[in-house]
Amino acid sequence: MSKMKSVKIDRRSFLKMLGWGGAGTALAGCDLPTTVTLEEGKEEVVSYLMPEEYVIPGIGVWYASTCLQCDAGCGLHGRVREGRVLKLEGNPDSPINHGKTCMMGQAGVQAHYNPDRVTSPMLRKNGTLQAVSWDEALSELNGRLGAVSGDRFAMVTGTVSGHQAVLVSALMEQMGSSNHFAHETINARVWRQVCEDMLGDPMPRLRLDKAQVILSFGADFLGTWLSPVHMATEYAKFRSAPRGMLVQIEPKMTLTGGNADLWLPARPGTEGALALGIANFVIERGWNKVNVTPNVRRALAEYDLPKVEEITGIPVSKIKRIASLLSERSPALVLAGASAAGFEDGYESVAAAMLLNIIVGAVGETIEASAQFPEAALLARQGSTADLIKFAKGLENKAFDVVLFANTNPVYTAPEALGLEKGLAEVGFKVAMTQFPDETAMLADLVLPLASPLEDWGTHVAAYQAGGDPVISVQQPLMEPIHKDVRGFGDVMLGLLKARNKEFEQFADYYAYLKTAMLNMPGLADKDNKNDAAWNNLLQKGLLSAKPAKGKLSIKAHTVEVAGYQHSKEYPLHLVPSARLGLWDGRHANIPWLQEAPDQIAKVVWDSWAELHPKTAHELGVKNGDIIRVSSASGSIETQVYIHKGVHPDVVAVPMGQGHTAYGRYAKNRGANPLKVLNPITDKKTGELATHATRVKVSKVPRKNILVKMGGSETQMGRPLVRTVSADQFRRTEGEG
Amino acid sequence: MSFKNILENFSKYRRGAEEGGHHEYEHRWGMAIDLNLCIGCNACSTACYAENNLAVVGKDKFEKGQAMHWMRIERYWDDADAGRDFPEQGALFLPMLCQQCGAATCEPVCPVAATYHTPDGLNAQVYNRCIGSRYCNNNCPFRVRYFNFWSYYESSWPEPLNMQLNPDLSVRDKGVMEKCTFCVQRIRTAKDKAQRENRAIVDGEFQTACAQACPTGAIVFGDTMDPNSRVTKLWQEHEVERGPYTSKKPKQNAELRGYRIFEELNVDPSIMYLERVRETEV
Q1: Helical (H) or strand (E) element with A703
Q2: Is residue A577 located within the same domain as residue A519?
Q3: CATH number (domain holding residue A270)
Q4: Which H or E run contains A63?
């Protein structure tokens, strides 16, 4: 204790003492200042040979937190050694990810230690962003917020939940504005609407583990849909004896499609017609488990199989086979994802898939009511592109004077046709709360550097709850901030609230607020315990389960009207802006591990590419690595060709994620961004961007690239490296379950 | 081990798989990788980068085949799809990493004994003994040895990315061969802990980084000498035995899925794969 000159409990040590629950024993009675540095004016500098009390040199300690690499809400354990977080693993207690992680979760540390973080507030002066102090930044911001009235203030975030959602709502309330926009490009907005309308539950639980056959219309549940790690853990049960069967219908092979027993591309946008055709055949043969109203029956009868073959391009024999499988292999589960939902009639297509679920008796068997988290204020405000479009409309109407962006990069993700950049130029004051110098931050007037998720406090309620009791997952800092001039999202928001309303001053910081709020949650035992046992237990476990608000499903089958297929002479091909587990919507393009990780299907690294069917490539006269120009009515992009059979011949698929014009050394000026050239077509019902509806033409550019990808050979060349056996054989040897 | 010792006792250290392999194994770490469960998602390979200080080489060096992915997911298109318009049975995914062969072809060709067999059944690589002849790389049928053509520490971890480096193992420099170690640092930690607590290692008390991350549990890691380990049981269930191909007995049930890649080369791999499964009725 001799090194102690002055004993004071500053905020940091207070935070650390209570926050690092996993190290309860090492911390006991610790009220020392945890850092003794020259900067603080302390006389004694303590050598690292005398470690700080909470550090045991050479011993890694694991702390629980929450992954924020996407919005699935997986629980994490972070390995901390000598005050640094080194490795992330899944939290085995989390019902969402059961101790597992995906590649993006693993790469969370590279987002955190990224060399291109924003490290100090920046204010635009004379046209350029210049580093300023937090005091100056906040006084400028508070001044601007004070001068703006009501709905002239807008806030744009990604999916936000837990107590951060409470802070956002509180700020919107204080500002008197209803213009909070939550934007995510990769979302399940249409699916949710269909589930809500037809089942009375927007996020029903999907029992992949119980299903014997899954028919998926472009739902990439292993890669990018709803809760990928959770779905993959359930998929493992689905594939274990007696082994369910997966049929995937989509225009471009996704990771899930790569694992299908039967993969077929329907003509883009005709998934709905295919679902109705299957439904019609199921009822015709009397295989349906649930009867439909005469209205629905009549509407379905229009979809006789030859007609469906004509619309979709899927042969009658295959349609019959799929239909019979749904009844033979009961219980079935029908899913619909981005490539079904991404059209003007996307809602109808997804509804057609849901109708099929109802008819084959999946509802109640493989689709169950969700166990909803009981605290409505903490539920996820889920992002969508409909919100982005609304925001763009507002910009067009010059409706906002001050816009606050937090953890979102719409300037990158918004199609050019939405005119976001032009609209933003008219906004008086734009603030970006971000960790990285992204495209949106580059346009902002004020940039506030946020702490990384591994440096910050938070709570998260996943929109897709995995069954059992719903959980709220706690995010705690795994280390001190690397850069001392960053602040947590909650702390910044709370500061803005304090400046508008004295009531918020009862909380010293977001940590104090969070702790108070969590200790008031029902279900926390010994909350009166003076030793903070309840709080420390919560932090050790990383999550709190709550008694669910039990929902129930009520089926409302209605008729579905899908549009027919329209050919286009001028723009003969469809652009599929495919989502990658890895770069996601482009937010992970600044992570070197994820840039170097080969795409699961194309195996290309560090660039964009356009996937073409050999037939299409032959017609265009292009080979692997040739550069093509993909032009829509809204613009064009250029990228290299990768040819394989896992795309529909009418499709050119360009993955999202690259084509950044900013965002740090790993992301900037690399590849092309297909989102930019999307036409502003929306799903009629939900207003979601119809991501797959853009028609394009492709022309050859007289340039060539060397396609950099993993693996020289596309096939095994007859070598039995991966051997395949039949499912029948599998069932003979490994049982029927 | 002195050079004299190596010369004098060469036959003892180089006993072939036919003669029972390395004498007196303490453990024989092995794996079972189920290709029915593997979805090819890259979680394992990214976890490997995080755990093992693997260098990111960038596009140009990747093109030259210099990527350092100790664990990679190979993707093949099915030969059966050659005559079809579409790959109707999906893709073939193969997690490929060092097979820690019992009779490893990489070992005897090393001129300086930088790669050798440990009493744990691992092909160890002694970085500071390696002179970079790359003979081992040439001789590996699985192509899972990776050579440091450059000093990646100069470019791969610009500050503060370097703060993530795992202090339990080194960062390798130019001129040195490296490869999957079955997360030997985790093995070491677990062995030390068990020794301190005066007990044997319990199956499942630690895993390799790839097995721990794998969302579908396709990778099972453990000690194939521990009769109660999950991996041993899987090997037994699928009638796959250690030892050279030449003394391999036919399976009693030929339909069981276990196999070892390139077993016919007599290298005695420590990884058993379970065959991929597809419905034929569609």
Answers
A1: strand A695-704
A2: no
A3: 3.40.228.10
A4: strand A61-66
Better-scored residue on pLDDT, A153 or B247: A153
How many angstroms separate the Cα of B208 from the Cα of each of A468, A597, B205, B228, B240? Answer: 29, 19, 11, 18, 22
- Tally the domains of chain A: 4
Q: Does A258 contact B40 at a Cβ distance shorter than 8 Å? A: yes
Residue A237 and residue A145 share a domain = no
* Nearest chain B alpha carbon to A595: B58
Position B76, amino acid: Y
Domain B13-274 has CATH 3.30.70.20: yes
Which stretch of A526-530, A703-707, B122-126, B206-210 has the lowest confidence by average pLDDT?
Answer: A526-530
- What's the CA gap between B239 and B256, in Å, rounded? 7
B282 in contact with chain A, both atoms CB, cutoff 8 A:
yes
Residue B136 — very low, low, confident or very high, per pLDDT cuts 50/70/90? very high
- The CATH number given to whatever domain includes residue A528 is 3.40.50.740
- Which pLDDT belongs to residue A520? 84
Q: Confirm or reject contact between A239 and chain B (CB < 8 A).
A: yes
pLDDT, residue A196, reads: 95
Contact B129, B36 (CB under 8 A): no
Contact assignment for B45 to A103 by CB distance below 8 Å: yes
Among A277, A263, A280, CA closest to A218: A263
- Please tell me if residue B204 touches chain A, with a CB cutoff of 8 Å: no
Interchain CB contact of A223 with B (< 8 Å): yes
- Boundary residue ending a domain (A335, A370, A405): A370
Write down which residue in A92, A112, A132 finishes a domain: A112
What 3-state DSSP class applies to A601? coil
Residue B215's closest chain A neighbor by CA? A100
Specify whether A203 is located in the same domain as A349: yes
Domain enclosing residue A22, as ranges: 11-112
How far is Cα B191 from Cα B205, in angstroms, rounded to an integer? 10
- Name the H helices within A346-431: 346-359, 385-396, 410-413, 420-425
Q: How many CB pairs under 8 A join A and B?
A: 267
Report whether the peptide linkage leading into residue A470 is cis, meaning its omega lies within 30 degrees of zero. Answer: no
Spans of chain A, pLDDT less than 50: 1-39, 41-43
Whether the CB of B164 is below 8 Å from some CB of chain A: the reply is yes
Put simply, whether B109 touches A (Cβ < 8 Å) is no
Integer Cα distance of A305 and A315 in angstroms: 9
Interface test with B, best of A723, A728, A731 (most B CBs within 10 A): A723
Report the distance separating Cα A690 and Cα A190, nearest Å.
10
Do residue B215 and residue A88 have CB atoms under 8 angstroms apart? Answer: no
Confidence band (pLDDT; 50, 70, 90) for B219? very high
Q: B71-114 pLDDT, tens per residue? A: 999 999 998 888 899 999 999 999 999 999 998 999 999 999 99
Q: Would an 8 Å CB–CB cutoff place A669 in contact with chain B?
A: no
